[in-house]
Amino acid sequence: MLNVALCDDDSRFLDGILPLIKKSLTALKIKASIYLFTNANTLIQRFEEYNPYFDIIFLDIDMPLMNGKEVARRLRLIDQKFKLVFITSFEQEALNTFQFNVSGFLPKLLLDKRMPAVIERVANAIYEENPQTQIFKINVNDNRNRIIKVPLNDIMYLESINRKIYLHTKRKAYVLHCYKFMDLIEQYKNLGFVEIYRTCIVNLKYIFSIDDLEIRLDNGTTLPLSRRKRQNVLDNFCEIISEIKRC
User: Fold this and answer.
1) Which pairing describes strands 214-217 and 222-224: parallel, antiparallel, or unpaired?
2) How far is 224 from 168, CA to CA, in rounded Å?
3) Which of 70, 93, 187, 197 could pair with 226 in a Cys bridge, judged by C-beta atoms 3.0 to 4.6 Å apart?
């Protein structure tokens, strides 16, 4: 299941392109949830909160309030892995977009002709890279909850405090809904995570340094380190470093 976002200030254009995207996805037997945005700031905010995580974003370059290149710049500050497809009325607008890691361009006059090939290429790239994504149910305001999809590599650590389990990602922290921490330890111990004390597991890729009684993450966060867990943390950390050196 893919999450696809379409952003254009013209709602009539979105209504017109939606059937083309659905048709291309159906032909490839790909299931997808498609989200329409006429406001770029809303797209950025939703993406930043994994509400949801978008695998593919179709973005109009020629928007008046915030042009597509500026939107792309802000989105790339949040995440580098999603696939970006620019839509434009002027093909010369495709120039000077290398820094945005663009996966495709769609001229508005040739949407019907080029859409299937672009969709197929981008979808194939996503499945070849095979990013591991995790599904969580989180608590939100007013005693409600919702589902979010988070790339595995975005998870920094999980911890249990006062019977609440917190998911800390590169973007923000969430309170998980109805999880047992021991189950999470079992789930993630073979996915590059290590237990640093009884109620905290950390993604090894984010560990910057290990001291006697604490570890420091890449973003400056410090977490307590159990004496009993320290040697295992060191062994796993050194194994990761060795693999990097061999590469």
Assistant:
1) antiparallel
2) 15
3) 197
